[in-house]
Amino acid sequence: MSTERFFEIRKGIMLNFFTGREQYDELIEPGQGHLMFNDHSIHWIIDGERRRSDTVNWAIQFWLNDGSIVEAPALGTASAPRC
């Protein structure tokens, strides 16, 4: 069973998405939602919706190390920031 970890975006990051027909990158800036990682894939959470990204999983550790993201409490808890 995987554990969901949530992250606040502190610096602009690039996420990769695939629509079934085309692949594209999207720049995500601070304040544009949160990230969720479930040990299998990265999800961008914005406006109450989850968008699964095709970005490689090791990007989470890279972004943590360079300060682009910080771990946050689970969304929906009293101490969690709002998207």
Record keyword descriptors for this entry.
two-stranded antiparallel ribbon; 42% strand; 5-stranded antiparallel sheet; single chain; 1 helix; 83 residues; 10% helix; mainly beta
Integer-rounded radius of gyration = 12 Å
Number of helices: 1
Q: How many strands, which pairing sense, and closed or not: the largest β-sheet?
A: 5 strands, antiparallel
Structural class: mainly beta
Number of DSSP-assigned strands: 7
Our estimate of the beta-strand percent is 35-45%
Low-confidence stretches: 78-83
Helix and strand string, N-terminal first?
EEEEEEHE
Outline the structure in words.
- The protein has 83 residues and is mainly β.
- Helices cover 10% and strands 42% of the residues.
- The protein is built from 1 helix and 7 strands.
- A hairpin with a 4-residue loop joins β2 and β3.
- The longest helix has 8 residues, at 59-66.
- Residues 78-83 have low confidence and may be disordered.
Give the arrangement of secondary structure elements.
Elements: E1 5-9, E2 13-18, E3 23-28, E4 34-37, E5 42-46, E6 49-53, H1 59-66, E7 69-72
Antiparallel strand pairs: 1-4, 1-7, 2-3, 4-5, 5-6
How would you concisely characterize the structure shown here?
The protein is mainly beta and 83 residues long.
